[in-house]
Amino acid sequence: MGGRRARRRASPPRHAGTPELERVPHLAAVLAGDADGTGDPRLAAELTALTGLAPDAGGVPLRVCPVPTTGVVEALVVLADPRLPDHGDLAAAEEDLLGAYVARAGTALAAAALHEEQAHLGAVLQESLAAPRLPETPGVLWGAAYRPARETLRVGGDFYEVVGGAGRSAFLLGDVCGKGIEAAVLSGRVRQSWHALRLLEDRPGRLLPLLNTALLDAVATRDEDPRFATMVLGDAHPAANGTVTLRLASGGHPPPLVLRAGGEVEAVPVAGMLVGGIRDARFGEAEVTLAPGDTCLLYSDGVVEARGSGDFFGEERLAATLPRCAGAPPAVLCEHLEQVVVGWLDGHDHDDVALLAIQAPPLPSRPARSEA
């Protein structure tokens, strides 16, 4: 197909009533399938304005080919050639070639639209499952860090959640089996169930068995394989004297660590069975009082099971790292621990990593008295 020929694809709005198409009524008619447009000088003028395909002084015939994608015309292929007959007919071979090109253009546009919809769906899903913002609550300071195993997804099987309250705030940190988007969906199910069940029961020791039952029932209704989780949930109650009382319940999760303001580290003796494993699972409970400046750290097994070139990071190394963070804000503590774990990994693959720190605010320091 020799001569001077240009092909340009435009994607006008779908709705014929939009202001853009009101300015080009003949093009709107072609898009709607109400007119062919071949050889119409009015359509040629509109296409010239939209595509920049300016006819020669003698006029360049235009051939307009709507490109259907999934039943909706979303584009046009415009063919301009001085050798194009005024009536728009082409040789049979050229008609076949043009038809194949238009069909492939439609397939490509349909695939692009499907990809765009899937990308949007994935972005919405990621946003709904991403780590939440921490609230500001009187008498309690919060800090958190999260690093998924597949960092490009931004979500994974580890999760945390904090809900602020006037006198008592609730929190949750856990880990579901698996990685990637499947684990993230399950973690979202756990978080949603926790939010709903908190409306019925706010005591951690009684809330965890209800959550266990809810997970088992959800799996049964979907005919899925058992998917268990480990977690620590609780609430924080600040007192007028600056202390914060934590009520904790645990199911199959590493024990929380308490970092005292003076640098001492204590493991909270609380343990329990996996959540979502069996109906009659038993879970541990504990109560901890944080003095001003004390911090309680919840963490997922991705921290202690982080494996570098030689060994796991381990609970002992985690406990030995904490004293250098004594007195630091909880957000700084979590960020420092995350960087220590990343450095330990030294580029190796890792599981999801989640950290949540709860701190009783340090007492304000008194200014030194100046001697007269």
Mean pLDDT: 79
Low-confidence residue ranges: 1-18
CATH level 3 topology of the largest domain: Phosphatase 2c, domain 1
User: CATH superfamily of the largest domain, called what?
Assistant: PPM-type phosphatase domain
- Percentage of β-strand residues: 15-25%
> End-to-end distance, in Å?
101 Å
Please give the structural blueprint.
Elements: E1 6-10, H1 19-22, H2 25-31, H3 41-51, E2 62-69, E3 72-80, H4 92-129, E4 141-147, E5 158-163, E6 169-176, H5 180-198, H6 204-222, E7 229-238, E8 244-251, E9 257-259, E10 265-267, E11 284-290, E12 295-299, H7 301-304, H8 314-321, H9 330-345, E13 353-359
Antiparallel strand pairs: 1-3, 2-3, 4-13, 5-6, 6-7, 7-8, 8-11, 9-10, 9-12, 12-13
Helix pairs in contact: 5-6
What does this protein look like?
This is Cyclic nucleotide-binding domain-containing protein. Residues 284-326 form the Cyclic nucleotide-binding domain. Pfam families: SpoIIE. It comes from Actinomycetospora chlora. The protein folds into two domains: 6-126, no CATH class; 131-359, PPM-type phosphatase domain (Phosphatase 2c, domain 1). The chain is of the alpha+beta class. It is elongated. It has helices at residues 19-22, 25-31, 41-51, 92-129, 180-198, 204-222, 301-304, 314-321, 330-345; strands spanning 6-10, 62-69, 72-80, 141-147, 158-163, 169-176, 229-238, 244-251, 257-259, 265-267, 284-290, 295-299, 353-359.
Summarize, please.
The protein has 9 helices and 13 strands. It is of the alpha+beta class and 372 residues long.
